[in-house]
Design goal:
This protein is mainly alpha-helical. The chain starts with a helix and ends in a 6-residue tail after the last helix.
């Protein structure tokens, strides 16, 4: 390599003060469920920039076919959900994380419904719950059969686009 390149850090002159600066209160990196949810929550506290590698609709979340488990049934409790998850996890689950997810899950589903997420419904109009995996009760909610991920992305993107201080 030419010795002059050893003397310089950059191949071209680089002065950061000449570059445009973008300011925000919160920068969220990633446009999947976690990123979109974080951006929506952060928007209550200031300006947010959500940085995604492609369009918001293009994420692994959109391909998720399973449902979302939450203790929504009259015969179910978050404690039962925790027990089933820890048993099925065979020692690989983080108990505190499982507890938080199980306890906050029902309210999160209700919030998604308020935001316009469409879940499959039973004849009485309640969210239709199925039993999957290691669950001992029906607690898995689906959207359009196996299109739960795509519906979740649609709902979150619509919510993001309607949130004024998210770019």
């Amino acid at each position: 390599m030419d010795p002059q390149f050893d003397q310089r850090r950059y191949l071209i002159p680089f002065r950061s003060l000449l570059l445009p600066h973008v300011f925000t209160d919160t920068l969220v990196i990633g446009g999947g469920v976690a990123g979109a949810s974080a951006a929506i929550a952060a928007a209550a506290h200031g300006d947010v920039i959500l940085l995604a590698k492609d369009s918001l609709e293009l994420s692994s979340t959109a391909w998720a076919q399973g449902g979302i488990a939450a203790a929504l049934g009259d015969d179910d409790t978050p404690a039962d959900h925790v027990g089933d998850t820890l048993a099925a996890g065979a020692g690989l689950c983080e108990p505190d994380a499982v507890r938080v997810c199980a306890e906050e899950g029902p309210d999160a589903i209700r919030e998604l419904v308020e935001w316009g997420m469409v879940f499959d419904r039973d004849d009485a109009g309640a969210i239709h719950l199925t039993r999957e995996g290691g669950h001992t009760r029906n607690r898995v909610a689906h959207s359009r059969g196996d299109a739960t991920g795509a519906e979740l992305v649609r709902c979150l993107v619509e919510r993001l686009r309607g949130t004024e201080n998210v770019r």
